[in-house]
Design brief:
Layout lengths: L1 H16 L3 E6 L7 H16 L3 E6 L2 H10 L5 E3 L2 E3 L2 H25 L4 E5 L6 E5 L2 E5 L2 E5 L5 E6 L2 H8 L3 E5 L1 E3 L5 E3 L2 H12 L3 E6 L17 E3 H9 L7 H13 L4 E6 L5 H7 L6 E4 L1
Parallel strand pairs: 1-2, 1-13, 2-10, 5-10, 13-15, 14-16
Antiparallel strand pairs: 3-4, 6-9, 7-8, 11-12, 15-16
Helix pairs in contact: 3-4, 6-8, 7-8
The structure holds adenosine-5'-diphosphate and magnesium ion (MG).
Pfam families: AA_kinase
Keywords: Amino-acid biosynthesis, Arginine biosynthesis, ATP-binding, Cytoplasm, Kinase, Nucleotide-binding, Transferase
Enzyme class: transferase
């Protein structure tokens, strides 16, 4: 009976989500173990088989750093900002497209799913430009050259629509290109938000290594289970988010401004967190609404 009641509780959500597109970002820190990653893939397949159209975007920062170390390449920083030179961007592509993306696709195949691995380059999905970063020197601002770090110029969702409409699950790495053929490393949160906006997705779901957004970032008991976009904007302005949570918040705000209905930040290392967040009243992470 307990098992049946779970299904019955899920029914209204399944009905609501059937046929809807959801962009799911798997963070580098939510992929640290193969086991956790495969379980996440299985949950995403469950979404797919109840009629949801998942679009997966993944990160991979920790693996890039690890591979660089293996190849004996010292990460370069200028004022705390990582520089992506020619040598580094080659490793970024190798790790993100050649390894992480292909591994996620393999798990989909292994568990009976049809996934298509691609980067932001494919089908000109994400057109990038070099990211301009400024720093303050005394009274004036000077530009810092980060190398091949990009930001989104625009998104062409056409290729995704072809893939999704034919029953496949796109798995996208955060590598993009400009019209001169320069390849850029992108922030995966931002790419996920941009794609969600371009697809007018029902939801943007971020799987990370914390339970959601904490009102006080140092207090794990201050998890916010539901908040408005305005509140999130306020937290960002007041500096109550730092590190990897900043691009997530920016991506969410951007996606909601572009027609995405809701965004969720959940702990990807907790088993079945996606299913609990989507199919139960209580949820498990942080939900942000327009
Ligand atoms: N207010 C906050 N609530 C939750 N996490 C926060 C907050 N501010 C900063 N963070 C940090 O953001 C991190 C998640 O981003 P990140 O490390 O980039 O993970 P991912 O690999 O999923 O992108 C958390 O581990 C946490 O340290
Ligand atoms: Mg991150």
């Amino acid at each position: 009976m307990e098992k049946v009641s779970v299904l019955v509780e899920a029914l209204p959500y399944i009905r609501e989500f059937h046929g809807q597109t959801m962009v799911i970002k798997i963070g580098g820190h939510a992929m640290v173990s193969e086991d956790v990653l495969e379980k996440t893939v299985k949950d995403i397949l469950l979404l797919y088989f109840v009629g949801i159209k998942p679009v997966v975007v993944h990160g991979g920062g920790p693996e890039i750093s690890e591979k660089m170390k293996k190849f004996g390449i010292q990460p370069k920083f200028v004022d705390g900002l990582r520089i992506t030179d020619k040598e580094t961007i080659e490793i970024v592509e190798m790790v993100l497209d050649g390894k992480v993306n292909s591994k996620i696709v393999s798990y989909f195949i292994k568990n009976g799913g049809k996934a298509v691995g691609m980067s932001g380059k494919d089908g000109l999905l994400v057109v990038a430009r070099k990211k301009k970063v400024k720093k303050k020197v005394g009274e004036s601002e000077v530009e810092v050259d980060l190398g091949f770090v990009g930001e989104t110029e625009y998104v062409n969702p056409g290729i995704l629509e072809i893939i999704i409409d034919n029953g496949y699950i796109p798995v996208i790495s955060p590598v993009a290109i400009d019209l001169n053929g320069n390849v850029y490393n992108m922030n995966a949160d931002i790419v996920a938000g941009d794609i969600a906006g371009a697809l007018k997705a029902k939801k943007l779901i971020m799987l990370t290594d914390v339970d959601g957004i904490y009102r006080d970032k140092d207090d794990r008991s201050s998890l916010i289970s539901k908040m408005s976009k305005d509140e999130l904007e306020r937290m960002l302005r007041e500096g109550r988010l730092d590190g990897g949570m900043i691009p997530k918040a920016e991506a969410i705000i951007n996606a909601l401004n572009n027609g995405v209905e809701k965004a969720h930040i959940i702990n990807g290392s907790k088993e079945h967190s996606i299913l609990i967040e989507l199919f139960t009243k209580e949820g498990i992470g942080t939900m942000v609404y327009r």
